[in-house]
Amino acid sequence: MSYAYIQFFSDIDLSSLPEVGGKNASLGELFQALGAAEVRVPDGFALSVRAFRLHLEENGLSDWIYQALAAVNVRDVAELSRVAREIREKIRHAELPSGVRRELQQAYAELSARYGTSEADVAVRSSATAEDLPSASFAGQQESYLNVCGAPALDIAVRSCMASLFTDRAIVYRAERGFDHRSVALSVGVQKMVRSDLASAGVIFTLDTESGFRDVVLVTGSFGLGETVVKGRVNPDEFWVHKPTLRLGYRPIVRKELGSKAIKLIYARGGTSPVAEVAVPRGDRERFSLSDDEVLQLSAWAVAIEEHYSRRAGAPTPMDIEWAKDGRTDELYIVQARPETVQAQRSQLDFETYRLAAKGKLLAKGKSVGTRIGAGPVRVIRTAAELRNFRPGDVLVAPMTDPDWEPVLKTAAAVVTEQGGRTCHAAIISRELGIPCVVGARQALSVLPNGEEVTVSCAEGDDGKVYAGRLDFSREVIHLGDLPAPRVPVMLNVGNPERAFSLGRLPSAGVGLARIEFVISTWIGIHPMALLHPERVPADALAEIKTRTHAHARPADYFVDKLATGIAQIAAAFYPRPVIVRFSDFKTNEYKNLLGGAAFEPTESNPMIGFRGASRYYDERYREAFGLECSAILKVRNEMGLTNVKVMIPFCRTVQEGRDVLTEMAKHGLERGQNELEVYVMCEIPNNVVLADQFSQIFDGFSIGSNDLTQLTLGIDRDSALLARLFNERDDGVKRLIASVIRVAHEHGRKVGLCGQAPSDDPQFAEWLAGQGIDSISVTSDALPQVLRVLAAPVSADVRPAISSSSALVT
């Protein structure tokens, strides 16, 4: 039949936005363009804007509402709340116009029949005409109603949805962003429910929400209906998938994090509410809400949606998507999609960094939102009634935020919540407002008392931290378009995978040194041999190991998976630029500090030049653990498709030792030259220079570790405070060795880079290296801009090669 006020999704596309609002227009676009072939979308219909306006007009509400809004002071919280509540009550209690009510009942009956029932369970969602625009998110501004069943319940839900155009938060949002209230109308979407109460649901972003990195999909999920994730009621599971290699057919889940998922929403059995909140059983909390296959399926759909919207817009359009899994059929569905509005509007050419001058006492931590730092006095807010105590510049601390709190949120120095994940309301609004926010900070309300000065730091990776006191910090903005191209490729030294997506935006030639020790010490924390031989581990350490690895069939798989994702996150951030990953180079005293490590490490009087680096990899005391490192690299390259990963052997004392390590690697599937695998060797021992011609026969290149090369050349322990004044990487002897290895390596067709600290500390040293003909220089991220500028300038006269061929060290 034909309708005057109803349009089914099959008749809607993005051009329908003026009639059905942003959300419904987007659902219709998905249903039409992608539903049949690629993306599964539940059917439904939209009650048009025309029905909304008629409802106000026939009930004599239109002029009264807009006159009341014109007179209200949106900064007066009490007055705003009173006026908005009165408006909503009048809309909610007014009867729908008879023609609208009749068509609503008929369309509901038709939708129910399509699903083989007389009364389908549906979701009723608002869809404003200014909603889901590329320039404004309107996140959480209006209400949704779930598990609505039967025509009478649908009638009530529709009127309540219409009324929610006038929530306190929606009125303030429009007023402060210059939207005329009368020009914004509301359509109501009615969509068949997906029984995710029996399974799981969540949110997808087609970029990394914190860094704005565009080459990943972020999937979040939790058990039950998706409102718990959207509204920040739970700390969800998180999965990052690399788009470029996903398109090539690989399985690039470059990272996944298990959320606590404490509660879930399910269909209620009786009572006044159609949904109920219940605790998630412990067994479910300790497992992921999606399988790897399901994560990859959702990511593929997300990429298809983003590509479709980008074609329609004529420009890259990152997306914010909601998904649900039906627990009866195990089928996945997309239930909403809208343009992402925060990172998409930020300049991709501005790189902003915040740094703490010094750290204080750590009071609380959770997940960081954004990369900024803020400080101020704590203001604990548990209910909306306490908002009157909030002062601009306070740090808002709450169990979670409510969309109605936005007028206060925008004046906060920072936000800390005990609940929620990176896609919850607090996170979305904080990003939009540019406020540092820490979510999922357990016990924050008890450890952060009112009035105490704190500093909230989101500038240290995934962990957002709250420190005691008001700490000094700095802010720097680099305009990437102003950085010049250097005459020598400049790479980065990267240790922390959590910063990789942000650092990947910098104009570097790749990663010259990725230290996996950081991943092992901070993400894993367990000695790999303890995972392979638990029978040798003391009982107390073994109990902790079992707790950490319980989700894995074999404890060793925990090590491989965590190490692989750490490496993969760095490799994905810089793809397809090369990423040189150095195998572990802990010293025995450092390995001993890992959980279970004491049972496997000897005591050495001088660990700095002891059982470290290459010597461990083929030794019975560590050989099996080295196999785990190789397995992680193999997973990154072969399963995830990140073949830009190259590997490097540290502290390789002799040529024969190099051959032994290559043999060991081949046993575990890592064979030099196979699948374009390149293997480099650290040049940090004088013997690497003396025998550079022979090392060139078995390795693809050298990376000079100037720290160790200096200490072994000058005979100085680089950790000795007594001799620090003599430790100088720019000593003439060290420079002769560096110049020599560059020359000999080039004679044998091998490339040479340098990944030591010297050029980061002294950009002029980078200029000297360029003068020697080095192939690349790897520096810390903070040193990159200055090094680029130095290497873009004309060559100075004092950077000529330090030695001639006649005076070179004999090799």
Structure report:
By secondary structure, the chain is of the alpha/beta class. 36% of the residues lie in helices and 20% in strands. The protein contains 30 helices and 30 strands. It has an eight-stranded parallel beta barrel with strand order 23-24-25-26-27-28-29-30, surrounded by six helices. It has a seven-stranded mixed barrel with strand order 15-19-18-17-16-20-21. A six-stranded antiparallel β-sheet has the order 9-8-7-6-12-13. The longest helix is centred in the middle third of the chain and has 22 residues. The C terminus is likely disordered.
Short description:
With 811 residues, the chain is α/β, with parallel strands linked by helices. It contains 30 helices and 30 strands.
**Helical segment count:** 30
Structural class: alpha/beta
* Cα end-to-end separation: 89 Å
Low-confidence stretches: 132-139, 799-811
Largest sheet: 8 strands, parallel, barrel
How much of the polypeptide forms β-strand, as a percent range? 15-25%
Helix fraction, binned, reads: 25-40%
Number of strands: 30
* Rg estimate, integer Å: 30 Å
Strand order of the largest sheet: 23-24-25-26-27-28-29-30
* Overall geometric form: elongated
Which whole number gives the mean pLDDT?
Answer: 91
